[in-house]
Batch of 3 targets.
Target 1
Amino acid sequence: LPVWLSTPIATQAELRGSSGLGLGPSVIGNLQSTTGVGNIILALFVTYRIINTLGPVTTFGLALFINAAAAFGPPIVQLMPSNTPEPVALSLMCISYSLVAASRNMMFATALMLSKEAAPGAPGVAIGINQSACSLGAGLGPLLTGFAYTQSLRLLRSCTPFFIGVGILGALPGVLIQVMAPAWPWRISV
């Protein structure tokens, strides 16, 4: 999202699908700082209440759906009429950014709980594997999505298909979790 947020607004109608909001670094930095503070508040006061109410499996699936929904923010902004006031588009992107932060908050908390419960024996090993997988995703994710975003702009002259694809692919694991995951609490026999 930061790359899209900083991409200049297209002045020609045929390039509208390739434009972002043209925000400066300070605005994007403020957005990231605000969502970071909100994320801390969410972690302290809300996340574990959601997990205790829905269970970690359902919460993890919900987090994946929320993250996928956030990907539809840029296409919605691009489909709005060109005379839409800038604060409306910025507000929508603030909501999308906040959804990403909230979903990651819930994902990390539930992933730790689930990996601890899923592996018999020492929970430290399962948590270590979980953190290694998260680190791999944090490294490869921006590389692959940056490449896909660039190709979407280069080949299709629009980033809308990219963000719609991210939304659909992001929702797919949530669907699989809701359909295929065993009921919580898990009972692992050793």
Target 2
Amino acid sequence: SSRLFLPPRRWVALLEVFVAMPLIALYVKAEMEGVEKMIFPEQDMLKIDVQQSGGTELREGVTVDPTNEEEVPNSKGTANFLIKFEGAKAPATISVVTPSRKVPIKDLKSETLGEITQAGKMQPATVFDCRGCEPVKWYPLGLTIETSFGKFENVDLSDPDGWMECSETGDTAMVSSVEFEFRSVK
């Protein structure tokens, strides 16, 4: 009988491939005038559409709450969001991940998560650990916008015409042309 022999360091490399978290980052860009930054509040819920990994089943408008902890059936783990797709043996899960020393995300090492500060440039807003599903659409709701004349909370940027606010002295702040994409990160 033939046996496959891998030196110990190969085992580690092989194990890392199977254990690595499938991380997906939400990147956002927008045209901004008179806006210092757009902030994604850390503990706020995110509304997204999710699709079954390797499948076509889609669930629209689901809410992922980073403060919610759900027990994952037949597992010791927890997740912020669970969903069961037809024909799947186990529920799909999504958790919001905060990079740290314990959970380093090399692709985002020099980035500031959750703050969009440069107009017209894709910047990371949040990171998801997705298992069995993947986000395909983001609804731009619940954002905080900081301007030179004030802070505006729970802003809805889903209007195709954008968002605009004026100060008493005639200063204006505008956000328009909001775009997003999901990218795999490591």
Target 3
Amino acid sequence: DVECFEDVICLVQLSTSCRDVVLDALRLHELLPGALADLLEDASILKIFHAPRNDLRWLRLNFGLEVAGLFDTAAAARELAGADLDAEATHSGAADASRSARRLADPSLKALCCEYLGMDLDKTYQCADWRLRPLPQEMLRYAATDSRVLLPLVLALAPRLVAVGRSEACRAACERLLSQSRSDAKARAASG
């Protein structure tokens, strides 16, 4: 995950099942491309993002980095909401269909954490000025938590995708997102 301010990556957050790392991209700007390239470009290593359209653009713009092996939790949520809508249309449950339609339109990370992890994700600093240095501890905790929730979220979403037969559709949606990101970059480069 990345935190930006006006297209400048200020932080890069990385989380595994054991550790969270928040990197100061302003201080480490020259080192990050070399440090992150192998990880981000290795398709055998799953990179989990939430709605990463801007993250992908910012990683390319700031560091010349591409991402392979992407899982987008927002795309997964949209696939599950679509499956729910299909099922609800069959059973005509208006209240359930309305909830699924909202998830399809806006699968926010906060909403997904609430629904799938039973967690009220604090988004207080979502629009903060991440250029601020030193960053207050609360902002660092926010940044770490924002990436920490992604792995448990995938572990909750993936079996549901399999159960409703939407795993391949989710994988294809993630591939389309990467392909669209590359196409957008080529179009921007061609236009000057």
